[in-house]
Amino acid sequence: MISPKITISRVEKSRLPQIDFNNLPFGKEFSDHMFVADYEDGAWKDFRIEPLAPLSIHPGNLAWHYGQSIFEGMKASKSKDGVAMLFRPEQHIIRLNASATRMCMPEFPADMFIEAINTLVDMEKDWIPPSEGSALYIRPLMIAMDEALGVRPSAKYKLIIMTLPVGPYYPKPVSLWAEETYIRAAQGGVGEAKTAGNYAASLYPAKLAIEKGYDQIMWLDAKEFKYIQEVGTMNIFFVIGDKIVTPKTTGTILKGITKDTAIQILKHNGYEVEQRLISIDEIVEAHGKGELKEVFGSGTAAVVAKVSKIGYRDQVMELGDNTEIGDLIKSTINGLRLGTATDHWNWTVPAKGPAVSV
Ligand code: PLP
Ligand code: COI
After folding, report:
1. Whose CA is nearest to atom 1 of ligand 1?
2. How far apart (Å, rounded) are the C-alpha atoms in residues 207 and 26?
3. Which of 102, 239, 254, 258 is the one with CA 20 to 30 A from 298?
């Protein structure tokens, strides 16, 4: 792909030889380059790829004070033939722009986003870890850049895209605490946006859950603390008897792209998936009757993560070893990424390059 719009400056010496692909904790290692664009005078401009480096930011930056900060998470993998592949990239710019609208930030042009991802991933393709379950995680971030303390939308923004070689987000099954004091999102709030504040607000309740011996929170609805929403970093699925159910998105839950991927894979394999309200009481009852066969989370970072137990009030619901449905989704996604499974949906697309170097 020839991109006259993106200027490129490369690192003098890659840090890649220092990276151990067999030891990749999530989110710690960054690749050599980042894409950057600036929004000023009502337009995005200065599209560039440059060495990843700290930014110099004014202490009065509006994003720091009032939270105009949104992000995405996507992955690139290397196919068995050595080609860098993207997974459903267009879905991520659709969601980034939906988050932008909710947070009163400017949309980023979808074609430039796709071109930026293609060019950056092609440049960083040697950073894609080869082993199944590992990937090059792509983190687009948009932040306000005005230096002012009045509460109002910023007039200036930056879009940055970083890439990071990562291993599995959850190397082992996760335990969840069904939370009844704190909430993640209320109707009319920003729960559907992938915005920094949602994650900041989750940290203290998550710390309390960890002190109780759980890995993560399973959020309940903000009004009645009755209906299951999602997990801190994933959407959630339950296998009850012969039914697969997942909370329907009602405005408070992140519309997971992996959730949609999982539903389509399950449908393709002849399973029906119910998207509806699921009360915590229904889960307790199903567990009591021995009908709760499997629980798993879905997310870009997590892919599919088995849930080992759920704590709710004084109950501890142990979930056994069954991973049948979760494994079907996980092995299909990993197979699509490696190019060993047939892509009926055209979800995997090669990252094309090179762009014009300057
Ligand atoms: N819910 C939350 C709160 C998340 O942070 C994520 C991760 O992105 C998800 C759900 C799953 O979304 P996706 O599958 O698009 O990564
Ligand atoms: C993702 O799965 O991409 C996420 O954003 C989850 C988390 C790392 C915040």
Report:
1. 234
2. 19
3. 102
DSSP letter at 17 equals G
- Domains of the chain (ranges; CATH) run 7-167+345-350 (3.30.470.10), 174-322 (3.20.10.10)
DSSP-assigned letter for residue 222: T
* Ligand 2 pocket residue status of 73, Cβ below 6 Å: yes
- Residue 297: CB within 6 Å of ligand 2? no
Distance in Å, CA 11 to ligand 1 centroid? 32
User: Given a cut of 80, is residue 1 above it in pLDDT?
Assistant: no
pLDDT, tens digit, 9 for 90 and up, residues 72-85: 999 999 998 899 99
CA 263, CA 246: separation in Å to the nearest integer? Answer: 9
- Residue of the CA atom closest to atom 4 of ligand 1: 233
Q: Which residues of 11-45 are buried (b: 16+ CB within 10 A; e: fewer)?
A: eeeeeeeebeeeebeeeebbbbbbbbbebeeeebe
Tokens 């860098």 appear where? 84
Rounded Cα–Cα distance for residues 168 and 47 (Å): 31
pTM of the predicted model over 0.85:
yes
Tokens for 138, please give them: 């792509």
Q: Whose CA is nearest to atom 6 of ligand 2?
A: 233
